[in-house]
């Protein structure tokens, strides 16, 4: 067990009981920049999802005082509850000891994401608020409930059990935080970044609950030092728990929301990834530490567009795919450099084209809406020739760029012999992109068979009669025979990053029928 000492003298403290704390963080979709975003020379277009991960923290356990015990419950899953003892010693150190009953939980006896988040935030807390205050904050025991919106986990079983068709409108009939009746090891995850959203939500909830940061620190301003600290701590814990340092786009979007993301130099984590935990963590993670040189440019999709996500049959082993792509890149540096340069430039052009559409809406909302309503009734291949107006031309350009990016991703897959956009996904995407009002689509992140994303136009409210491209795309999905295509979240809102929630509201959600209390 690691332990940690305080920097402040043990003074008698006025005990002020902390009320409950609730925090949520969004999932992610990497629309463009897969593999390239591992290199700080390139950026990725990351959209935060409407699916969010929630952490709810309150004192006492099942309403009873439970000195220095922490129980973390994940009630959507079988055997997903972990308990720990916070250990304070006379020389002012703190440690976290997993309770014996965890080992009785079978395959879920340990959750490294949960355990490392608790342990490392306790170390940071004793550095920041001191031994006495931290002891008070845990002396009644803590009950922590962690839940993810349904889209993080495949709902196919839920839909079939309810006799509901596998369509977007059915998803709203499944209770929020629905019980999956399976273990975490067996659940089919949908690739929206549940671990990154979990870690960001749990770490932030603990930092707020232990008063290491204030709720006011959680603005979405990428320049906020408090938010940067939250980001750094969440990246540290996520990489520690995963045992690898990815690009970190998922934790960054969970923290700051949708963005153009350029990774931090991985060396910043080097001193923190060893067995030995540094005696002081704060200096490495503080928001003003310039070694954390990620670049975060707020981004949002254009107005009157909706991001549709579908969960496809099989999963993708991202670490294995990354390994094979980077190994090919090393074996053919010349060809890889050409491809990375062309693909990186096209990704940046797509980001600029989508941001330009938002600017065109701001410039003339009426003309923008009229153009979108018209394009809702046409397949994208007809857009460029249909009108010379700047909104039409801008959407035609965005569509063309997504198609060029798909071509480069297929080329990367061919050269590295990794199924990035395999033929089955190409056929599904081409069928979707032939529908009216579809701006573009592709395979998110590392690609493979995990999922597809489709960006569709939505008619203005004044033009309710306009055709719905979402329905046309959904018809392709429901009629698709080659693979099982299940709809996921689908929304227009560009989600904010990690934020404090009203604990009473979250508690009400957790009490609703259909949400199984364990
Ligand atoms: N509700 C939850 N409770 C506890 N742990 C969870 C929960 N959801 C996800 N996790 C952890 O995150 C891991 C999956 O993370 P990740 O690989 O990021 O999946 P994905 O990106 O497909 O959502 C799970 O194996 C589990 O350890
Ligand atoms: C390859 C990557 O650049 C993007 C992977 O994106 P995914 O969304 O596929 O990630 P997972 O949820 O872990 O499967 C690796 C990285 O950036 O870390």
Automatic annotation (TrEMBL):
Annotated metabolic or biological route of this protein: Isoprenoid biosynthesis; isopentenyl diphosphate biosynthesis via mevalonate pathway; isopentenyl diphosphate from (R)-mevalonate: step 2/3
MF term (GO), any: phosphomevalonate kinase activity
Key words of the record: ATP-binding, Kinase, Lipid biosynthesis, Lipid metabolism, Nucleotide-binding, Steroid biosynthesis, Steroid metabolism, Transferase
GO CC terms, sorted: peroxisome
Pfam families given in the database record: GHMP_kinases_C
Domain annotation GHMP kinase C-terminal: ranges: 406-465
UniProt xrefs under SUPFAM superfamilies: Ribosomal protein S5 domain 2-like
Catalytic activity: (R)-5-phosphomevalonate + ATP = (R)-5-diphosphomevalonate + ADP
GO BP terms, alphabetized: ergosterol biosynthetic process; farnesyl diphosphate biosynthetic process, mevalonate pathway; isopentenyl diphosphate biosynthetic process, mevalonate pathway
Transferase listed as a keyword: yes
EC top class named in words: transferase
Known EC number: 2.7.4.2
Family: Belongs to the GHMP kinase family. Mevalonate kinase subfamily.
Protein's name in the database: Phosphomevalonate kinase
Organism: Tulasnella calospora MUT 4182
């Amino acid at each position: 067990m690691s332990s940690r000492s305080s920097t402040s003298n043990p003074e008698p403290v006025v005990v002020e009981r902390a009320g409950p704390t609730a925090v949520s963080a969004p999932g992610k979709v990497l629309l463009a920049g897969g593999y390239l975003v591992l290199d700080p020379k390139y950026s990725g277009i990351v959209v935060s999802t409407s699916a969010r991960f929630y952490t709810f923290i309150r004192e006492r356990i099942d309403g009873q005082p439970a000195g220095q015990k922490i129980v973390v419950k994940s009630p959507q899953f079988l055997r997903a509850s972990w308990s720990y003892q916070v250990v304070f010693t006379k020389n002012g150190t703190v440690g976290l000891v997993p309770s014996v009953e965890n080992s009785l939980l079978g395959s879920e006896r340990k959750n490294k994401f949960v355990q490392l988040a608790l342990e490392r935030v306790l170390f940071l807390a004793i550095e920041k608020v001191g031994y006495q205050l931290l002891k008070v904050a845990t002396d009644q025991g803590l009950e922590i409930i962690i839940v993810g919106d349904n889209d993080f986990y495949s709902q196919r079983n839920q839909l079939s059990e309810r006799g509901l068709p596998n369509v977007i409108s059915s998803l709203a009939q499944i209770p929020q935080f629905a019980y999956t009746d399976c273990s975490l090891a067996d659940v089919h995850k949908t690739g929206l970044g549940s671990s990154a959203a979990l870690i960001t939500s749990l770490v932030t909830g603990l930092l707020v609950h232990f008063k290491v940061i204030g709720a006011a620190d959680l603005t979405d301003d990428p320049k906020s030092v408090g938010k940067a600290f939250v980001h750094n701590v969440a990246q540290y814990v996520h990489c520690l728990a995963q045992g690898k340092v990815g690009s970190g786009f998922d934790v960054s979007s969970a923290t700051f929301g949708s963005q153009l993301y350029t990774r931090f130099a991985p060396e910043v984590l080097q001193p923190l990834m060893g067995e030995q935990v540094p005696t002081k963590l704060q200096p490495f993670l503080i928001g003003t530490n310039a070694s954390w040189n990620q670049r975060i440019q707020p981004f949002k999709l254009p107005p009157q567009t909706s991001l549709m996500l579908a969960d496809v049959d099989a999963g993708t082993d991202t670490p294995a795919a990354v390994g094979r792509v980077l190994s090919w890149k090393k074996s053919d540096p010349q060809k890889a450099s050409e491809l990375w340069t062309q693909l990186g430039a096209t990704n940046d052009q797509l980001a600029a084209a989508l941001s330009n559409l938002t600017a065109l809406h701001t410039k003339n909302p009426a003309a923008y809406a009229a153009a979108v309503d018209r394009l809702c009734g046409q397949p994208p291949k007809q857009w460029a020739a249909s009108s010379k107006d700047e909104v039409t031309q801008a959407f035609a350009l965005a569509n063309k760029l997504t198609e060029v990016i798909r071509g480069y991703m297929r080329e990367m897959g061919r050269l590295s012999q990794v199924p990035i956009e395999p033929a089955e996904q190409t056929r599904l995407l081409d069928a979707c992109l032939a529908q009216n009002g579809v701006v573009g689509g592709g395979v998110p992140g590392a690609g493979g068979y995990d999922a597809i994303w489709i960006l569709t136009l939505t008619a203005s409210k004044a033009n309710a009669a306009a055709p719905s491209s979402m329905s046309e795309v959904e018809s392709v999905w429901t009629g698709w025979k080659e693979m099982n295509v299940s709809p996921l979240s689908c929304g227009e809102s560009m989600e904010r990053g990690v934020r404090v929630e009203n604990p009473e509201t979250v508690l009400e959600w957790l009490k609703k029928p259909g949400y199984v209390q364990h």
